[in-house]
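# nightly structure sweep
# worker-07 picked up a monomer target from the shared queue
# config: single-sequence mode, recycle default, output format = structure tokens
# input follows
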Amino acid sequence: MEWLHAGRVGRPHGLDGSFHVTRPNVQLLQNAESVMIDERELEITRRAGTPQRQILRLQDHEDRAAAEALRGKDMLVARSEAPDLEPDEWWAEDLVGCSVLDGDRVVGTVRRLVELPSCEMLEVDRAEGGELLVPLVSDAVREVDLDRRAIDVDLRFLGAE
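# output follows
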């Protein structure tokens, strides 16, 4: 089964095992019934907070010490449970490792997706060394082809020729 990163366990909230979610992927968590932590699937037994500041409690974690023991751990949701995406949306996991090109010119490889307040950026390890940040906007990204695992960018627009 394939898994998608849904957030990270943050600091405990109260005494009942609830915790804050850091870096939540709202789309994934909003309808998830369970999450995978350390190769163990755990049912979500409580939800509170707002979509951006979520508070969760998980099965078998019903006191503050249990929540603290999970702190800092990644939470994953099964890809099969993920909602459908719009045509120009992708899961971060699908973009990592893609080749980045400008036409036929090899630029590098996507290391990770960085979420900034204004937009999401691809962090690219450049083939000739160094890194490049590419905003996921139509002026910078011409095409994302997941079947080919290739992303075509406009280096001229990025000022990175």
